[in-house]
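Example 9 (inverse folding). The structure is encoded as follows.
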């Protein structure tokens, strides 16, 4: 009789464990509308259920645990050179990068804006990427004032999009906020200036951005 009572008492707990898989407890943080979340401790994005899982290999099952831990996502569209939208409805702002505007409610497009947007589009639109967060943004839940996720973006081949934009002169280093790779990005920017790449040549021909290119958004 006592054994039956114990089993009866444990049934609700067992049902709860089955309904909510153990990764939810080992990686704290509520799930978003995609069935994943950013771990509060590590900052990594994790997939726990569809539709997020289905994007990892197209059939609703994670190919392996490593890909889940790395937070593989699919790019829905590129908004401009430093802002992208992920499936199904999350905007990501690239950390440490500021590209010229292509459209802005208060001014016309800026020098080299279309080229910067096209570069990012060629690199990642419609592709799988991996996001990495920066602990410097943890206090504000890795969001900017426009509620965009602040992140570094890596392609499946390991290419580091944020750094490539700076290295090839499609954008400038955003210096108004702290971030992990600031020194590295500044070195890449200096090299792009010296070589006259991208906007450093196109915007006035002498390796320095013209007044048409200015840092004005986070």
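The amino acid assigned to each position is listed next.
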């Amino acid at each position: 009789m006592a054994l039956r009572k114990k089993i009866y008492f444990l049934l609700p707990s067992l049902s709860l464990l089955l309904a909510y898989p153990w990764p939810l407890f080992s990686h704290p943080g509520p799930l978003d509308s995609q069935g994943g979340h950013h771990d509060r401790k590590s900052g990594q994005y994790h997939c726990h259920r569809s539709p997020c899982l289905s994007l990892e290999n197209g059939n609703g099952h994670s190919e392996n645990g490593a890909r889940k831990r790395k937070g593989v996502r699919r790019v829905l569209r590129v908004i401009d050179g430093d802002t992208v939208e992920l499936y199904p409805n999350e905007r990501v702002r690239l950390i440490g990068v500021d590209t010229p505007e292509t459209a802005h409610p208060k001014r016309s497009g800026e020098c080299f804006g279309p080229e910067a947007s096209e570069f990012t589009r060629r690199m990642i639109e419609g592709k799988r990427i991996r996001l990495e967060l920066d602990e410097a943004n943890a206090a504000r839940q890795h969001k900017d004032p426009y509620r965009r996720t602040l992140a570094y973006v890596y392609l499946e081949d390991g290419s580091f999009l944020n750094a490539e934009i700076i290295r090839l002169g499609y954008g400038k280093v955003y210096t108004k906020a702290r971030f992990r790779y600031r020194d590295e990005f500044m070195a890449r920017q200096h090299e792009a200036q010296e070589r006259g790449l991208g906007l450093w040549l196109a915007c006035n021909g002498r390796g320095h951005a013209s007044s048409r290119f200015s840092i004005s958004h986070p």
